[in-house]
Every structure is written in C-alpha cells, then in structure tokens.
C-alpha cells in the first residue's frame, strides 16, 4: 500500500550547498550531532586501508584478507582509464555548480530517491547530514532513464554511460575474485546476484564547505545496504573514515585508485565471512568535497541468503534469514543511516566521541 510518505519528504528540503553559500558562521541545530557522534578533526594517524595492485602478485590473497578483516580496500591498476575518472568527477562538479533552479528541476522524492537530494530517511525531526547528492539508476536497463540524468553539462550523460559501463565491468572482475576467495566457483556470487540481471546505481555525494565541521558529519555512520561499493573519492580532499574496532581510520586515497567496500548483501551471502563495515564522512571549512559511489547490487527481487555450499563446507548455520534486496533497503530509506542496525547488529559498541580535547 502506498502512503503519502512515499512521495513527500517530512519537512521542507533545504539544500546544504545554499546554506554553505549563504555565508553563515554557525550551522542550524538540525545539523548539530550529539556530542558522542561528533568527529575528531585532528586525528592524524598513518594507518590506512589496504592497497591492492590488481596487476600485482598475490592480489587475490590480499583481497581475501581485506574483505575478511577490513571490509574495505583501495585498488590501483584496475583498468578504468584515469582520464575517464577525472572527467566523471568533473562533470558532476559542474552539475553542482549550476544555478539552484537548474538543480531543483531534478529534485527527488523518497519514492525512488532518483534525482537531486539532500536527505536520506523520512523521519521527521531527524538530525541531518551536511551534504547534498544525486542518485541515478544504471542497471537494470529498464530503470535507466536519461531524462532523470542531468542534461547539463552536455557531456554528462555520455561520460557517465562510459564510466558506468567500465565500473560494472571492474565490479564483475572483483566478484569472481571474491567468489574464488571463499572457495567457491568464480560464478557463484555473481549468479546469486542474478547473473546478467544485477542492479547498479550511482550516488554522487557533494559535501559543501562547513563553518563548524567539528559539530557535524557529511555522512553519518552506515554500512552500504547493497552488494559492493566502488567509490571514486575526491582528488584532493580527504573525508571518508572507516570504522576499525573502536577507531575511525581516515582513508588516504592513492592517485586514481578506487575505494572498494563490501556491502550488506555480500556479508549476508558470505555468512559474515566478509564484513560490511561502517563508515562515515567528515567535512571541513575550507574545501568542498565530491565523491562518486557506484553501487553494484543484486537483482532487487531475488532472495538473498547465505550461500548453501559455504554452510555445508564449513558446517555452519545461516546467520541471516532470506530477504530480497528490495525488502532490505527499505530500512535505510526510511530511517536514514543508522550504523549497522539493519543487519541486526547493535550500535552500542560504537566508538565513543574521539578524545581530542
Ligand atoms: C556512500 C558513502 C563515502 C564518501 O555514498 O555510501 O559512504 O566518501 N560515501 O563520500
Ligand atoms: Ni557508504
């Protein structure tokens, strides 16, 4: 049954970019996080997520360890042309720098989330994140609607078609490695996703400058509900943090690397051998940040459950009941980012407020 909630946001939408451009010195209370959820901006650590050279030796073993231990890794020599990556980032930067009325014509609703958006979740009075975004579908082909992709800049659709094709291809290569690393035939994970009928969508995140970056987050802690995420981070501005036990590790991207992370659906298929790890984004007062998160997902109406062959081989019981991805992602689309609670894991052991004072 459809309710009006499907079609409307609970409150008027405010574009974070407009707030930022207005030159305010203090952020509205709606963006102020509770003390324990605030970031520590002066957390200088050398620790980084693992880097995998896809043309190097031992990369399967390194990927295997990264999926089990970190849930995150960055990939260099992945085969996607660096110029295409730069162009993709550039067309979106141009999109976000157009006049507001141009962007407003793509304004999204919680029904599909497609288009220009400024919040995730429909709970009234929620504390919001300091970011705007653009969400679009690439696969399945019948969901791809160029009219919902920005018309300007004029090269955007062409650049993003090529970029998406290449990233899907890269994702397919990773799926084979992930499957073999579980001791399964290389096609098992891909087949569990629906074979050729996978879903693929893009969320372009735009994080405007923030006058009080210590009080808020660009994106609250969450795990990605889909299969696997292939992220093109900003070329110069850091911000993504990955949870590692009680710490938040700031990702330092290598030049033209993709940041890859395991999503909830692969955690479920692998019966938690691979981890879908929480992450969040910090903002800063001096530079905007842009990132392209490409989600490689299962066909949305297939049942996803731990792979039977894994359970029998290791003599283990399934940790998750079968559910479709459609059923599953309703949670984050309603409640917004809520750590890992959608996987039935408590958020109680979350890292406490970083001690930087
Ligand atoms: C996301 C995400 C990280 C980033 O879009 O799900 O985690 O660096 N983005 O923008
Ligand atoms: Ni994410």
UniProtKB/TrEMBL annotation:
Any one Gene Ontology BP term: defense response
A single MF term (Gene Ontology): L-ascorbic acid binding
Catalytic activity: jasmonate + 2-oxoglutarate + O2 = (1R,2R)-12-hydroxyjasmonate + succinate + CO2
Record's compositionally biased regions (Polar residues): 339-350
Stored Gene3D superfamilies: B-lactam Antibiotic, Isopenicillin N Synthase, Chain
Keyword list, A-Z: Dioxygenase, Iron, Jasmonic acid signaling pathway, Metal-binding, Oxidoreductase, Plant defense, Vitamin C
A Pfam entry, by short name: 2OG-FeII_Oxy
Domain Fe2OG dioxygenase: 197-298
Region feature Disordered, mapped onto this chain: 337-357
Keyword hit for Magnesium: no
Family membership: Belongs to the iron/ascorbate-dependent oxidoreductase family.
Name of this chain's protein: Fe2OG dioxygenase domain-containing protein
Organism: Solanum lycopersicum
């Amino acid at each position: 049954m459809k309710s009006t909630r499907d079609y409307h946001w609970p409150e008027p939408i405010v574009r974070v970019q407009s707030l930022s451009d207005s030159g305010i010195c203090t952020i509205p209370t709606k963006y102020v996080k509770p003390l324990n959820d605030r970031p520590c901006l002066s957390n200088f650590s050398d620790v980084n997520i693992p880097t995998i050279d896809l043309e190097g030796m031992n990369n399967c073993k390194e990927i295997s360890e990264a999926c089990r231990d970190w849930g995150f890794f960055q990939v260099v020599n992945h085969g996607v042309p660096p110029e295409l990556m730069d162009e993709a980032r550039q067309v979106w930067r141009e999109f976000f720098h157009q006049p507001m009325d141009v962007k407003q014509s793509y304004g999204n609703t919680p029904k599909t989330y497609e288009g220009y958006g400024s919040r995730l979740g429909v709970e009234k009075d929620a504390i919001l994140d300091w970011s705007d975004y653009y969400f679009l579908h690439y696969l399945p082909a019948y969901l791809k609607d160029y009219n919902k992709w920005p018309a300007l800049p004029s090269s955007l659709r062409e650049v993003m078609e090529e970029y998406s094709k290449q990233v899907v291809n890269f994702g397919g290569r990773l799926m084979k490695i992930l499957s073999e690393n579980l001791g399964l035939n290389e096609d098992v994970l891909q087949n569990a996703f629906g074979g050729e009928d996978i879903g693929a969508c893009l969320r372009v995140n735009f994080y405007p400058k923030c006058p009080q970056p210590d009080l808020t987050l660009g994106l609250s802690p969450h795990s990605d509900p889909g299969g696997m995420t292939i992220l093109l981070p900003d070329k110069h501005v850091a911000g993504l943090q990955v949870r590692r036990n009680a710490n938040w590790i700031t990702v330092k991207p290598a030049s033209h690397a993709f940041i890859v992370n395991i999503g909830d659906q692969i955690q479920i298929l692998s019966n938690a051998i691979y981890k879908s790890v929480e992450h969040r984004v910090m903002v800063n007062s001096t530079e905007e940040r842009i990132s392209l998160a490409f989600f490689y997902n299962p066909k949305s109406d297939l049942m996803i459950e731990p792979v039977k062959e894994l359970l029998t081989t290791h003599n283990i019981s399934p940790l998750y009941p079968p559910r479709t991805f459609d059923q599953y992602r309703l949670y984050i689309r309603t409640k917004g980012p809520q750590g890992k609670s959608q996987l039935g894991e408590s958020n109680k052991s979350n890292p406490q407020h970083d001690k930087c004072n």
